[in-house]
Amino acid sequence: MNAELSRNLEEAVAAIVSAIQAVRIPALEKILTWLIFPMIVGLLLSIVNPIADFYVKEHLAPNKKEIEKQIKKHVARSIRNTEQLSSFRLVSASVLNVRSRPSNEASILGRLQLAQVVVLFKRDKDWSIVAWSDDENGLQLQGWVFSRYLEKFR
After folding, report:
1. Which of 44, 49, 93, 119 gives the lowest tally of CB atoms within 10 Å of its CB?
2. Are 140 and 130 in contact (CB under 8 A)?
3. How far apart are CA 37 and CA 39, in angstroms?
């Protein structure tokens, strides 16, 4: 499939180049070259860029489960008494919105990142109120998050 697409693109570009070269008027040939080639390059980049972007991000993106596993293993080695971990949770979403109330319509107070550790204060059905440290400002913050994206340490 990719080889066929590549061959078709090469044939199309070669046909355009030969058509421009067939024009024996130098001024018109220059105009066509200045107008057509940039459009061809732009078209090719608009086709290739999203495909390449997808594959590059797929291979460079960290495996979420592997990151969670490594953090849990490190915490388990660091803390012998697992009861101490009962109020802590690990964020399992790439980005988790922290809200002012337990509702998707509530204003967003902040965002937690994958594998960030939070303190669980209260759980209310599908929502939990958590606290975390904002390292940039040195503040202790709290808000509501969707509980599905919090994992216990075991």
Report:
1. 49
2. no
3. 5
